[in-house]
Amino acid sequence: xxxxxxxxxxxxxxxxxxxxxxxxxxxxxxxxxxxxxxxxxxxxxxxxxxxxxxxxxxxxxxxxxxxxxxxxxxxxxxxxxxxxxxxxxxxxxxxxxxxxxxxxxxxxxxxxxxxxxxxxxxxxxxxxxxxxxxxxxxxxxxxxxxxxxxxxxxxxxxxxxxxxxxxxxxxxxxxxxxxxxxxxxxxxxxxxxxxxxxxxxxxxxxxxxxxxxxxxxxxxxxxxxxxxxxxxxxxxxxxxxxxxxxxxxxxxxxxxxxxxxxxxxxxxxxxxxxxxxxxx
Amino acid sequence: xxxxxxxxxxxxxxxxxxxxxxxxxxxxxxxxxxxxxxxxxxxxxxxxxxxxxxxxxxxxxxxxxxxxxxxxxxxxxxxxxxxxxxxxxxxxxxxxxxxxxxxxxxxxxxxxxxxxxxxxxxxxxxxxxxxxxxxxxxxxxxxxxxxxxxxxxxxxxxxxxxxxxxxxxxxxxxxxxxxxxxxxxxxxxxxxxxxxxxxxxxxxxxxxxxxxxxxxxxxxxxxxxxxxxxxxxxxxxxxxxxxxxxxxxxxxxxxxxxxxxxxxxxxxxxxxxxxxxxxxxxxxxxxxxxxxxxxxxxxxxxxxxxxxxxxxxxxxxxxxxxxxxxxxxxxxxxxxxxxxxxxxxxxxxxxxxxxxxxxxxxxxxxxxxxxxxxxxxxxxxxxxxxxxxxxxxx
Lengths: 280, 394
Known about the structure:
A: 280 residues, B: alpha+beta, ATP hydrolysis activity (chain B), transport (chain B), ABC_transporter-like_CS (chain B)
């Protein structure tokens, strides 16, 4: 590391340090503003607790939905070829770059009472908009691309050679998927799910637009923080710190899984090479 | 015939048909891009032919024609593939890798493990059962991969250059193991190495540009090649030519009487034939023009001082016109090859001891006389039509 740094022009290093400060300093500033003696009461207040629990519940459900739909989507994108596949991939990844509030409006005009499917759903006695279900849908909508993107990349890296071997050994398609494909990309699946969970946890714009802000029903932690900022800044800061801690844990966890599941030659994809001494 | 194969793959200019008897091993040889891997992929079901039909033990592997197509899924073909790389599943132990085939066919976990352990024992690495592929050397991994392929109990085993990626030190032991397990097994092995064909295969198929150019029993193909590639594989000089009244006349002018030590039944005069001779059996001597001081004509008896070739000292006296063929030629190239020097002249290669090259001053452009004893050459009819064997149209 020192060698690499020594070879770089110093002004590059200086700019990099400035950039790093730009990311870290606001977090420090916020941590300095935390009212530590009141921290526990602030984050365990009635409204904070219900927001935190709602956030965890909906984010976990959204993550489960992402895995349920994202794994087949990644498999279809990585293992098949059909007309319009590139366009479809771009569309699937669209929520990644779309402003969340736009996503919320789109969801509203799909599942809302006067939306595309609203009439049908209403006839079935299902009302989604401004319910906890809407929160989950908003979160899943924005988080899905994270899982699909990370998993599709891993599937392409691993390639189809192991799957072909499995087929010649007599394994059915389902067995190949279950015993070869999924275990090989498991690290990427986990890191993708973790990233999706983090994105779901932080979701604000789409939730506010599509689900509103009803305490205990749709008011997730980010919404609670935004509201508290007006009335009780100390509570907002304390709750923010919780989300920062969760984010750090998630990034750390995902980063740890990544090198194993990400790039690298096939064969070292699924497991770290524990002992290179034994090889040869 | 348990294996019948005929397939065309238009986009790769592949068109091959062959049959293989039960328990036979077929070696598929050929230069890169000849279609060897295509052949295996078609058999394994990883590629679909544009036309063709293949059967294994009476079951159709594929049948693609104008009336529609039948394609058996790879897993239902009973064909295992051992590739150049072991491709062991990295997330499973060696034992679990080997047990994968039996497990996939519905064998109970316990008995699948027992089968797997027996196969690991058979390939000589039972102690590696618990290891992960990342902890295995190349040779160990390939043994485990062989056990995995065999544990699936295939009706046909495909091997795609199974020794190519191994260290030189490990390959011989693996080759012996393959020789052992392939003995009673129907198998197709793609290889670059004629040694593999000699040791492992009953029959040989030589592919070039997606077509079969030679096929037959291993000994037959590798002692009587009909193509330049086959000759190179076998390490032989190949002289195309035809039957003449006197015997055999090569395209380079080499003449060998057929009555003498070369029994060839009733080959009509004018029929195309070929002559094969080992480079080590070809002697090189200076022609009269190049060595006027010796006072010899090119067709006079051999002089022990001017005629060289491995072992030439012992039988150079017998290289007389009565039992040797002689050919005046000009050296095209002189190539150093380890402990011998290969002299190229008139389309023939002759291996000469380095000391003799120095003594005779053999350099490109020098006129020489090539000699070979009749008992060292093999002359045989070539089955290919003349226009195929003679691209020059001569």
